[in-house]
Write a structure and sequence with these properties.
This protein is mainly alpha-helical and about 160 residues long. The chain is built from 6 helices and 2 strands, in the order ββαααααα. Strands 1-2 form a two-stranded antiparallel sheet. It starts with 5 loop residues before the first strand and ends in a 7-residue tail after the last helix. One of its GO terms (molecular function) is ATP binding.
């Protein structure tokens, strides 16, 4: 029996968190990760998808390699924080995906601007990329505003 993803704001979602006890730590070795990956990709009734986003842990381990071998990937997007160790890990991940011929879209102006400390929204504010970042920022701002309004109503106290 296939699991049904949760629908939220028009987006179908599934999380490993839905498959384990809410307070259970997730301490998995390779075979357990592979089983979870299999359940998430083949055991969920996704329906027709334009995009499947899989938030993976850092690294170039079994999960990433297996995903690139088992699924027809159109591309990989690697997101990193600026710490040296995170960037090293991101570079390794990018190299692994290149080695197995999974395209990695990279907009040079974003990378070079970031390297120089000039975000794309400053360096090229009228570019499509800057507009995309601004749009995401506006959505985040709206969500934070909604959460603040919910919080301002005060807690619900049940006796």
């Amino acid at each position: 029996m296939k699991m049904i993803p949760v629908e939220n704001h028009g987006v179908r979602c599934m999380s490993i968190g839905f498959l384990v006890d809410k307070d259970a730590p997730i301490v998995w070795r390779g075979p357990m990760v592979m089983s979870a990956l299999e359940k998430m990709t083949r055991g969920v009734a996704w329906g027709n998808l334009d995009i499947l986003v899989v938030d993976m842990p850092p690294g170039t381990g079994d999960a990433q390699l297996s995903m690139s071998q088992r699924l027809r990937l159109s591309g990989a997007l690697i997101v990193s924080t600026p710490q040296d160790i995170a960037l090293i890990d991101a570079r390794r991940g990018a190299n692994m995906f290149r080695k197995v011929q999974v395209p990695i879209p990279l907009e040079i102006s974003i990378r070079t601007g970031s390297d120089e400390g000039k975000p794309i929204v400053v360096a090229s504010p009228d570019s499509a990329s800057a507009h995309a970042y601004i749009h995401v920022a506006e959505m985040v701002k709206q969500k934070v505003k909604e959460l603040a309004e919910e919080r301002s109503r005060g807690p619900e106290i049940l006796l």
